[in-house]
Amino acid sequence: MEAIWDGLVEAFRLIGSGDGDLFSIAGRTLLVSGSATALAMVVGVPLGYLLGRARFPARTLILAGVGTGMGMPPVVAGLIIWLLLVRSGPFGGFELIYTKQAMIIAQFLIATPLVIAFTAASIQSLPARLPDLLTVLGAGRLRTLWLLAKEARLGLLAAVMAGFGAVVSEVGASMAVGGNLAGDTRVLTTAIVTETSRADTERAIAYGLVLLAMAFAIVAVLTVVQQRSPR
Amino acid sequence: MSLARRLLVLPALCALVFAAACGGSDDDPGTIILATTTSTYDSGLLDELVPRFEERTGITVKVIAVGTGAALRMAGEGNADAVLVHAPEAEAPYVASGDLVSSRLVMTNDFVIVGPPDDPARAASASDLPAALAAIAADGRFVSRGDDSGTHKRELALWGTAGIDPSALPREETGQGMGATLTIASERRAYTLTDRATYLALRDVLDLTVFVEGDASLLNPYHVHVVNPDRHDGVAAEQAEAFAAFLLEPATQALIGRFRAEEFGRSLFTPALESPVGGG
Question: Which has more confidence, A150 or A66?
């Protein structure tokens, strides 16, 4: 019990002291996971919209595939991207292995199925005739999409939170394709692994607290936006 | 902002972030991937050495800490530029096949067998290493790395020499690095084989004592090898060669000998220049 208390005290001291490592690792985590989530939104929202609206033969099968992707363990995503990007792999020539880009790609692979599934579900929950109605009322194509997005914002923001939450907390993929390089590809989760195996529990706790605080701050902002009554 | 503009801005922003995260330029002195063992990494030695090399040469060293088996496989497939490993028997085939060249002994340390302080198997009173292993096999729990690392390979070899079948023992494999395995052994009151450096680095948080040490078969030599650029495309052999040479420089060797010596009252690694196995 004492070890836990001492760990917490020391962790808060580290955070309070403006420890350089801690803040650069936290910033890097935000950059990598934020980029991956943004890219996942760019790709996943249109695909989710299509899957939610359109009716075509393989639709159910694809939705099942996306659902499976939601449950893919990050370490499997990491293994796939590692095999593709490693020097002897098909895309080895790009020299992306053990870089932040490789981590963004792997996290993108993890977040995208989540974004697609949440978007499809939120679009499907809207009245089926809503787009036609908006068009009849004189809204242009883009205006219609925008109004739909506003109507579906509960689900869309849940998609962002689910995607970001998944990638910011995963460790397997970041470790495999990023290599956990100090000052380069070390993020909060992989730093926690390193400090734990080096028995620097205080630092591990401090990183864990920062990770939780970061996730909370972002989800809190998104939740405020989500719960705001529509204009 | 209209939706149309938002839709255009977002991908542009992403591209920008992606590019910013990239960096790098053409007059870059280069980057090498050094595949190495968890013991050199968890002890903090490479944190000490690598920045000096990077500062002097401008070459970036990406240290990937895996087990010796995984490090050698990475090298064999051309996925690393240099390896720093400690399993001579496992390294030999890669050297023979020509995948690894320019091999040099960097340093040695030794393996020790640690266990719970009350020594339930009475390993400390055994006359020699095989007897100690037999005592542990009879009366103790043993935790193994089980990750094809140099330490794991050595552990299996030691059981073999003692004529004990490890699969018949109450022996558990962690599949994790040395630091994690020591913690598990400590919590489960089990014996384990560890390199002395990692044990000393973590000693304060472990409830483990050294019972077996000093046997010649517990010597642990670390070699650096460069991946053969004639056999694998894209190997930064010149930079890897520079790193290997750096490790053998007298100043670096002195640094290895002094590494955390004050803290522990003895050096964690013996540099090759004064090693019992001899330089080479």
Answer: A66
Cα A178 vs. chain centroid, distance in angstroms? 16
Quote the tokens at residue B23: 């960096």
ipTM associated with this complex: 0.77
Give the ranges where B27-128 is alpha helix by DSSP (H).
38-42, 45-57, 68-76, 88-96
- Count A/B contacts: CB-CB distance under 8 Å: 84
Task: Suggest the residue from B62, B63, B208, B235 to mutate for an interface test with chain A (most A CBs closer than 10 A).
Answer: B62
* Residue of A43, A45, A85, A87 best to disrupt the B interface, most CBs of B under 10 A: A87
Domains of chain B (ranges, CATH numbers): 25-109+220-274 (3.40.190.10), 110-218 (3.40.190.10)
Nearest 5°: the CA angle B265, B111, B247 is: 70
Name the DSSP letter for residue B271: E
Write out the residue range of the structural domain in which residue A23 sits: 2-227
Rounded to an integer, the average pLDDT of A33-45 is 96
Average pLDDT, chain A: 90
Closest residue by Cα to residue B180 from B262, B89, B65: B65
As a whole number of angstroms, the distance between CA A143 and CA A130 comes to: 13
Minimum Cα–Cα distance from A150: chain B residue: B3
Q: What would the mean pLDDT of B150-177 be, rounded to a whole number?
A: 90
For chain A, the domain total comes to: 1
Question: Do the beta carbons of residue B242 and residue B109 sit within 8 Å?
Answer: no
Question: Taking 60 as the threshold, does the pLDDT of residue A84 lie above it?
Answer: yes
H or E element at residue B146? none
Judge whether B91 and B42 are in contact, CB under 8 Å.
no
pLDDT band at B18 (very low <50, low <70, confident <90, very high): low
Asked if the C-beta of B203 comes within 8 angstroms of chain A's C-beta atoms, the answer is no
Residue B82 · residue B254 · CB < 8 Å: no
User: Is the CB of residue B178 less than 8 Å from the CB of residue B39?
Assistant: yes
Amino acid in position B135: A
> Average pLDDT for residues A26-50, to the nearest whole number?
96
For residues A2 and B30, give the distance between their C-alpha atoms in angstroms, rounded to a whole number.
47
If phi over 0 gives left and psi between -120 and 50 gives alpha, with beta otherwise, what is residue A98? left
Q: Which residue has the higher pLDDT, B215 or B4?
A: B215
CATH for A171? 1.10.3720.10
Supply the pLDDT for residue B186.
Answer: 93
Residue type, B120: P
